[in-house]
């Protein structure tokens, strides 16, 4: 008679991986701000305080633009430790900081020169554009950044298809090139000292090469090597389907349970669409599987994918993996189709596991037979919590702090992995804060990005 035992807990790093990554990023930013400020003081000061302040704002804007590129370069080391959702959030806030720095740069410099020339700001801007090399390019770059910033606002983003939003953001690369040529042409800190020129060339080339490597070369290399293709399409429910893929040397693909890819299925109708879907089973070196719910025309059409379809996959992405597990045991919380990365994690997470699966009706609980089979094999506990979004039980809201503590009394001693719709995820995170579960033990992925 076999004895069910949880997966053994592997050795954990002394410092959490995301803490290490954050420390490196903050050290990088601090060093760059210090260097840029020193080079500014050496060569970019003006007798007019407005012009000096405007130039300094422009220097910091140039740094913010380079950081923007690094945040979206999808570098594996950063992505595995911080996750695309956190990097995307930082990219968004850096973008708005960049926008305001550019506004300050333009306004302060133009007003400063207008004061010296004793003219109005509009006339001074036209005069600078007509007489100073690089200014017109800077104006075009500023206009492109304004367009991208407007498209990134929440009200605009919600009304825009992903492909349209992505196309608009490609203008950022044109703005980067124009801004750099403007800096070369008129940037005093760029021309003031050989060390300053070396610094700025290194920063801009490093950021550009990072984007080229992470967004183009690495995906091309992996796809040429692994050559994924569809081998099975299996309906899991009336509105949910699993797609199985195989390829070459998949044991060398650095994918982990909980991660996701941007998938392009190379049919005539779909090749131009890149959709993010999580792996719904831990990679086994032979096949990859995604499971998707029909929430739009793109995911609904997966059911009709021809067997043998070639697949171009960008990834793996995401920090929602067991490399961040700090405690011996774990709690997994899934909502709706957010069960897909959670189901994969159930194979990989260490120690004793409790799984809470929140669905509107029992029929919505896809992959449930697999979950029960895995739970039986490894001695885990599965609770399916079905009912409307405002469902209350004996301890209040079913995912409230009292209910979570009743279901998992030792919740404070477990790592908690949460994946589901943004509203559910936010509610669970609030409950965990009320229960004083340490933040280093909480790992969340909002399924609006990774699903």
From TrEMBL:
Instruction: Tell me where on the tree of life, at the top rank, the source sits.
Output: Bacteria
Cellular component GO terms held in the UniProt record: membrane
Which residues belong to any copy of the FAD-binding FR-type domain?
A: 223-323
Q: What cofactor requirement does the entry state?
A: FAD
Q: Which Gene3D superfamilies match?
A: Nucleotide-binding domain of ferredoxin-NADP reductase (FNR) module, Translation factors
Where in or outside the cell it occurs: the entry states: Membrane
- Pfam families per the record? Ferric_reduct, NAD_binding_1
Keyword presence, Glycosyltransferase? no
Keyword annotations for this protein? 2Fe-2S, FAD, Flavoprotein, Iron, Iron-sulfur, Membrane, Metal-binding, Oxidoreductase, Transmembrane, Transmembrane helix
Q: What is this protein called?
A: Ferredoxin reductase family protein
**Organism of origin:** Amycolatopsis carbonis
- Lineage of producing organism: Bacteria, Bacillati, Actinomycetota, Actinomycetes, Pseudonocardiales
